[in-house]
Structures are given as C-alpha cells and as structure tokens.
Amino acid sequence: MTEVVGRFLEDRLGTTPQRASVTFLGVEPIDVLRFAAGDRPTVVYVTSGCARHPMSDPTDLHADPVRGPRAELVVRMSSGTPLPGLHKRMATLAAAPAVEGLIIAADALVDLGEPLWDGSPFTAVLLEADELGIVELPEPMDPVTMLRAIPITANEAAWVRLKGADALREAWREAEIDVTRPDRASATPA
C-alpha cells in the first residue's frame, strides 16, 4: 500500500522525497514524505501509512478490513522557512484513524491542541480535497483520497465550528490570505 502511494506521489510531483518515519506504540510506522524542488515555490509534505487500512467506526465490531475510506494528508507550505516538528505532528494526525477511530474527510476540522510545528501559531488543520487527487487501488479496495491539511489558528478553528469551513475559506479569499505562508496572519471572519 505505502509503495503504491509513494510511486504515485513521485510520479505526480516529479521528484524523490526526503522521508521521516514516526512510530507509535501499537500502530504501524507512519512516514512523512517531503517533496521539494529547487525552483518550486512550495514544499509538499505527504503522509504515507494512514491509508494502510480503511477507516471505520471503532465501535463497529464487524468493520470491513478491505473496503472503506482511505486517506493520506498533504501539507503545502512556502519554501524557505524551517518547520521543525511538522513531520511528527503530521504523523500524529495520520495515526488518529488507527489510534482514535477518527474518520478524516474533506471539510473536517482536526485540532491538535499543540502547535503544528515548533513555535507555530497553528494548532489545527482544516481538510479539503488536494489537487493530487486519488490513488487507485486494486479491487475491492477503495481508492486513497489525498486530503490537503491547511494549518489554522485556534481562532480560525472556532470560526469553523461556529460558521463552517466555507465561511473561513471565504474570509481567506476576501483578505487575500496565502494559506501556504507559515507566517501568515489569522483570518478575522466577519
């Protein structure tokens, strides 16, 4: 599974990634792949391992071990700024379906309760479909959806809970906020 995702990403992004592996007790390792090309304005981080198994409700005693939603997380950030610890937090997010039974999908808000990288004002992510698309798997497995995890502040997370993901996206558009900048301002939706 992880090999299929890795080949897909290398083909789509046109470069070989750097790889960091994070292990959690009782869970298979989660890799975080970092794709950066010298002339590329963004660095792309992608988890590999979240989609090993389909996501299911942890209370479902008869969950299908083959069919069901699968996803990997993508973070796109402007290049040139160090983001220490990002790979560990991404691995934590990617392990949440196996550890906590979390089913991640587009428009979901996932709050870490800690900075997404050391010193970051962003403590949560808002998920949406990423331009990488989906990774087809052999039948009968469902495809892997690549979900972009956009770093957001605690105030933005509160806004999503109150008004929804689309309202926050609209606030970003109106304020012309570049969500790939690690030093961006927090949106102040009206």
Automatic annotation (TrEMBL):
<protein>
    <submittedName>
        <fullName>Suppressor of fused protein (SUFU)</fullName>
    </submittedName>
</protein>
<feature type="domain" description="Suppressor of fused-like">
    <location>
        <begin position="27"/>
        <end position="184"/>
    </location>
</feature>
<dbReference type="Pfam" id="PF05076">
    <property type="entry name" value="SUFU"/>
</dbReference>
<dbReference type="InterPro" id="IPR020941">
    <property type="entry name" value="SUFU-like_domain"/>
</dbReference>
